[in-house]
Write a structure and sequence with these properties.
- By secondary structure, this protein is an alpha/beta fold.
- It has 2 domains: 113 residues, Periplasmic binding protein-like II (D-Maltodextrin-Binding Protein, domain 2), CATH 3.40.190.10; 85 residues, Periplasmic binding protein-like II (D-Maltodextrin-Binding Protein, domain 2).
- Helix content is 32%, strand content 31%.
- It has 9 helices and 11 strands.
- The strands form 2 sheets. Strands 2-3-1-4-11-5 form a 6-stranded mixed beta sheet, sandwiched between helices. The protein has a 5-stranded mixed beta sheet with strand order 8-7-9-6-10.
- The radius of gyration is 19 Å and the shape is elongated.
- The N and C termini lie far apart (38 Å).
- Bound molecules: 1-O-pyrophosphono-5-O-phosphono-alpha-D-ribofuranose.
- 1-O-pyrophosphono-5-O-phosphono-alpha-D-ribofuranose binds next to strand 9 and helix 7.
Length: 209
């Protein structure tokens, strides 16, 4: 049976495919995938999924390996091995608010919108601050603009989305990049194949700053 690798579609997809090409893998099917979700890449079977589902598939062992952002790992992950930092998809978790406002001013309980409620909760707990967290599914920047929230916890890459919507970073929370995760049982049962894949991948990852 082929080793099955789950890739995060969207944001990380193009950069991951570029890495696979550098590894010498034939990515034709992956590039010309149309609407297909399971693709053959040399001896591997590649599955394209949303970030949180990459973790679910790897945790359940239906995929041996996953490539997913640390943001999703910190928010959702627990039972798998995190094996490698791919040094791509780099961004930060940050607390942001409307430009020119003092987020920490006043005594009212702050309302924070985020796609990442667990990360948000842990961050404010570490600051000893009680906040009300509002879960949003995307374009979280809207929440403070519509006065639903006093601030957001989200990923910031170039900062363009914040800037173009009159928001600014209050504090960076943690750096993020794409990681390789491995199912715990696969690690025991298919160690040689996994090591071979990781070694080839390790040789082509971009150098960090
Ligand atoms: C992410 C994030 C920000 C934006 C940050 O959203 O939630 O909105 O990218 O990138 P920037 O700093 O380079 O502007 P994404 O594009 O994943 O879409 P979503 O919010 O709809 O999930």
């Amino acid at each position: 049976m082929s080793l099955r690798i789950a890739l995060t579609k969207g944001r990380l997809e193009k950069q991951t495919v570029e890495l696979f090409e550098k590894m010498g893998l034939d990515c034709d099917e992956l590039i010309n995938k149309g609407r297909r979700l399971i693709l053959k890449v040399n001896d591997y079977e590649v599955v394209l999924a949303k970030a949180a589902d990459v973790i679910t598939y790897v945790e359940h062992g239906v995929c041996d390996i996953g490539i997913v952002g640390r943001d999703t790992i910190v928010e959702n992950g627990k039972s798998f091995y995190e094996m490698m930092d791919l040094n791509l998809g780099k961004c930060d978790f940050a607390l942001a608010t409307k430009k020119g406002t003092d987020f920490f001013d006043g005594f009212n309980t702050k309302r924070i919108a985020s796609k990442y409620p667990n990360v948000t909760k842990a961050y404010f707990e570490s600051r000893g601050m009680d906040v009300k967290i509002i879960k949003i599914e995307g374009s979280v920047e809207l929440a403070p603009l519509l006065n639903l929230a006093d601030g957001i916890v989200d990923i910031v890459e170039t900062g363009t989305t914040l800037k173009e919507n009159g928001l600014e970073v209050v504090e960076k929370i943690m750096p993020i990049s794409a990681r390789v995760i491995v199912n715990m049982a696969s690690m025991k049962l298919r160690r040689d194949e996994i090591d071979e894949f990781l070694e080839k991948l390790g040789n082509v990852i971009p150098k960090g700053e």
